[in-house]
């Protein structure tokens, strides 16, 4: 499905672009699910754009159990095989889906952050597949800091609404990346529908707004875990919270909430 070189790039850079893997049929299915999701937001849905500001930045997650299009994608699309291949994992659990929509003229940035400090999972075999449903020019694409998954850092989660560190969490504040962009080696791509980006859960990333006056930027990030992943709880704020999960910390993820989709 993908070359050894792609896997090596993922391991070295923490993010890699995979072209043309998802057919129009998968994209249409996800688009139908996303419209259902926008019409019927879940309990975790957030609008990050303040009233009166242009555009609309919407996020929601963990709806696959009630949105059949997302469920079908999680179990039957090439995404699980892609996750298995990049993580070199014999087993893949579906962790959750996260929808991030930036409608035309949205100015809100997605703050620089990395994902694993937010999450109920420890381990190295944890990744996301960021799959846009619209063409994404390079200057609208999520940006990744090359190799940052190997910095050995664990930055405090940021709040997406105001870009502040979450006050209930202790740790190191992520550096001012936008103020010192020349110091960082950044990765971003122009994407066509069917292309995706696979990235490690510790790769630092952030995204610009959607400057287009006409084009939406609908993206679905699916999250996946592999052989070495273990359930955990962290002090303070976690996102998604997964409060209902009763797995003991240190256990494999296998459970109805995090189903094994490839083994
Ligand atoms: O789509 C975005 O704006 C950000 C994506 C992101 O932060 C993620 O998928 O973890």
Automatic annotation (TrEMBL):
Extract one GO molecular function annotation from the record.
Answer: 2-oxoglutarate-dependent dioxygenase activity
Q: Which SUPFAM superfamilies match?
A: Clavaminate synthase-like (SSF51197)
Pfam family example for this protein?
PhyH
Q: Where is this region: Disordered?
A: 240-263
Under InterPro entries, the record lists: Phytyl_CoA_dOase-like
Q: Which organism is it from?
A: Candidatus Entotheonella gemina
Q: What is this protein called?
A: Phytanoyl-CoA dioxygenase
